[in-house]
Amino acid sequence: MGRGNHPHFRWPRGSKPIRIKSETGTVEFQKEYTLLLSEAKRGIAQVSAKYTMSGLIESYQQSERWNALSDRTQKDYQKVLDFWSEKTGARDIRRFERKHIIAAMDANKDAVRFANYVMQVARVLFEHSIDLGWRKDNPAQGVKSLKMPKAKRLDREPWPAEKIKAFRARYAFETRERLLFELCLGSGQRIGDVLEMRWSDIEGDAIRVVQNKTGKGLLVPLTSDLRSALVSHRSINAASRRQSVFVLTNARRSGPWSYRGASQAIRNAREAVGALKWDIHSLRHAAATELYEVGCDIPMIMAVTGMSEKMVRHYTARANQFTLASKAQLKREK
Hints:
The protein is mainly alpha-helical. The protein folds into three domains: about 20-50, no CATH class; about 55-150, DNA polymerase, domain 1, CATH 1.10.150.130; about 160-330, hpI Integrase, Chain A (Orthogonal Bundle).
């Protein structure tokens, strides 16, 4: 505050000075000073609120970056955005440093995949803050992912033929478990895409898929087992008082079967047939393996599953190794 009978008010330091009209030492001066100080603090608080993590998340979810994400990716991101909002919502994002990102990852180190996702989503958020002009750098850039402990690494294997046979023997075509099983195995698609399939996606003797993760559009011919399961459930749906547009519907037939509900049902089924070692995603692995074992080449497997060449090679590596080893041993015996 400047000197004289009519000093200037300046707060915080570096802001534009405001001349106080009342003379110093008067009641009016004190009232005017108190009002100016209150308004300045309120203004600072409003500006600061914009730069909080909650403010950044809100801005990001209104951006084209967010709108360009698939529904599935948005759901995955939301879990991490909720974490950042809950833990650091009121913090000024301009004060975030690399160490804060690492600390958040360390706090979730028992769940390595989530911990790495915390960093990856933070990197996206701070990239958005740079676009907004709120920061000049990205504190999450260059932070290394945590490595999964060897003891916890899941060496996913395809469902073996005997377990597929056991599942089919226990669950009739009319059950939701069997329909989900045949959709995953027969189409070779991810469970997230399978749960979103609608009756209108069936075109003749094939089913149309648009993969959430990749955006690929596929028209996949039905296998005989999948065809039988679909015929059974189309009849059930037609006879129901409440008909669902979704192939896999919830118990009330008011919407799609939830991921949690479907996963739990399949887990119970896996336990019932002694297949806990093989999860539902392993059915996609099994689909690629079955195709390879009947002589399909990589482009053919890619056409059914929508996998990249790299993933096809990865998923069929075990079967390929055994095929090559068998040929080698036959040559050896000659």
